[in-house]
Amino acid sequence: MGDFSFDHVWMKAAVLMLVHLFAPAMRPWLQNKQAVINAFGGGMAISYVFIHLLPEIGEGKEHLGFFTFIIVLVGYLLFYLINAKGENNHAVPSVKTKTTYNINIAQYWVYSFILIVGLPKDFSQSHMHIMLMTFAASLHIIHADYEIGEENPILFKKSGHYILATAPLAGIFARWFLMPDSDLIVHSLTSILAGALIYSMAKQDQNHVSNKVMVWFFAGILVYTGLLLLIMNT
After folding, report:
1. Residue 197 burial (CB < 10 Å; 0-12/13-18/19+)?
2. Cβ count near 202 (within 10 Å)
3. 117-137 pLDDT, tens per residue?
4. What is the distance, to the nearest Å, from the Cα of residue 196 to the centroid of all Cα atoms in its chain?
5. Taking the model in full, what pTM does it have?
């Protein structure tokens, strides 16, 4: 059992839980803004992967060796297969829509869970750095919740966003009560998280990307990187 004191994991879990809970209330505000939010959040998320998670994975190589990078690939393939299951469903339209909705709920539940349980064990960065990473993850989750709500708005408002809100709490519970105090497991989960995030970025449709979306994507990268450099030098 881990230390149950308030730290960066609690902070991130609380924010993600609130994002899921208030997702239906945010829908009117997100109308016609989801592409921009997704692009900006995607830029911040991919910066988080390359600037923060990959160095953590490099440290995990001391415990996992070459398997560190195989586990990143496993994380990528896990979310690839979940998405492929939904896309290749050949049921009648009404059944297919509900099946796709359920698969997406399951996928983003696992994703939100891993965002918490896969955080590095010993995080020594400043609170500003933690807030920056949490903001990047929140933008990504906001867009994901919007897309799921578009598929089945009635069911999402009735139960879907509550189900997703349990994922960060489950991550907290698993982290402190179920997971053994093992660097091996923590680094494995961090690698799976990196694979999931890389897939999430790679799956974005790039065939019809407007100049506006590209600008916001690069803006997300520049904002995250710039703020991180500012934080590290203060």
Report:
1. buried
2. 12
3. 876 655 555 566 677 777 887
4. 8
5. 0.75
